[in-house]
Amino acid sequence: MGASKSKPLSPEVKDLEELDPEEFESFKEAFNNGGLSELKRKVDEDIDKWKNVPVNIAVTGNSGNGKSSFINSFRGLKAYSEGAAKVGVDETTFEPKDYMHPINKNIVLWDLPGVGTQNFPKNTYLQAVDFHKYEYFLIITATRFTENDIWLANEVQNLGKKFIFIRTKMSIDVSNDGHDNPGICKDDTVSKVRQAMAKHVKDAGFEEIRVFLIDNHFPLDYDFPDLIETMINEAPKWKQEAMTLTMTNLTKSLIHRKKDVLQKRIMKVAIVSAIGGAVPLPGVGLVVDLSIFIEEIHFYRKQLGLDDDSLQEIARSLDTTVEHLKVDLQLNSHFLGASLRSIAAFVSTLVLSEVAETVSAIAIPILGSFVGANISYGSTVAVLRSILDALVSDALAINKRLMQQLSEQSFS
Ligand SMILES: Nc1nc2c(ncn2[C@@H]2O[C@H](COP(=O)(O)OP(=O)(O)OP(=O)(O)O)[C@@H](O)[C@H]2O)c(=O)[nH]1
Ligand SMILES: [Mg+2]
Description:
Layout: E1 7-8, H1 14-17, H2 21-47, E2 55-61, H3 67-74, E3 97-101, E4 104-111, H4 122-128, E5 136-141, H5 147-158, E6 162-167, H6 170-180, H7 186-203, E7 211-213, H8 224-233, H9 237-246, H10 252-275, E8 279-281, E9 286-288, H11 290-303, H12 308-317, H13 322-328, H14 340-347, E10 350-351, H15 353-371, H16 375-410
Parallel strand pairs: 1-10, 2-4, 2-5, 5-6, 6-7
Antiparallel strand pairs: 3-4, 8-9
Magnesium ion (MG) binds next to helix 3.
């Protein structure tokens, strides 16, 4: 199924027109210094550079507010997963502890004891937690911020750093409010809490400062999507790409951000593919370096939560099977498997020639000095773009279904 459909490709090639001149210069220099092998090394290094960008994030707040739970949910882990931060009433954090992201060990969340807790008095807190190293502080409450939290927000700001206010445990409020006021809907409870928190921080001297309302057990619900977006935006610009590729809370906006970043890699992947051992893909007249090609598609699947493990997890949470999910949502991944044959079958559904030629026509004059008039370049770009589009549309369909499930739950 699916393989018989013919999909025209969009002839847009704007990512090529937006080639970063600095990057291009560095590629040219590599080529001039060491020919194709040096160019390949340089581009490979560039493709992987997001893994070497350090990001340290402080997570602080009083005991029991959900710091460790937040760290787990940010890392895509459940409290019972291997390597998860220990969670629960008897698992208090007494010392700063670092938790690396499983996808990128350089993105680290620091579980910090709250201000004024044992061994961490207010007057030495910032030195004790080594405040310099963090991009920003996440200050977490499950009710209202304490005087110490407010003090910390002010100090952090005075020292030229940023903070983000977070209020956890929203599902408990929704459930309690539903119990106390039969018939009240989730959105009403959320807006009551929002107003109360806005007044609370305003009274504490923070006008116009948003409090993100979240629930650590529902990482797509409430303000979690906006929080993820804000956490990326508040990082320095040069670290945002690394954050985007590392994050696993696949909200709709994160899926779009990932698409943008992945799309920008295509041109580089195609250069490496053109230099490497390009061979024809059976039956479809496409010449590519298969190992690079398959590796990149695998990377898209992982990034977009479409690898086998992620799909299993999603199917489980939707109370269905992966097979049903694929058919039900008409997922492209259904016929775009990781095997060579399934990729060839997918590629055979694309109308390639026109776009490949357009891409080559634009790319060759720019890149021609080093990749030459290599026929594989245009097709690789066109096919990867098309495969990425197909996978993004799957990720969005899954996100839509998960959001549907959340809204049904909240009215049941
Ligand atoms: N319903 C709900 N429960 C939560 C949430 N966040 C945390 N919890 C629960 O609250 C309890 C305490 O959570 P932790 O994540 O251990 O809190 P903590 O801030 O790390 O606490 P300390 O380590 O003692 O400072 C656990 O039982 C969590 O399951 C949330 O957003 N919603
Ligand atoms: Mg903890």
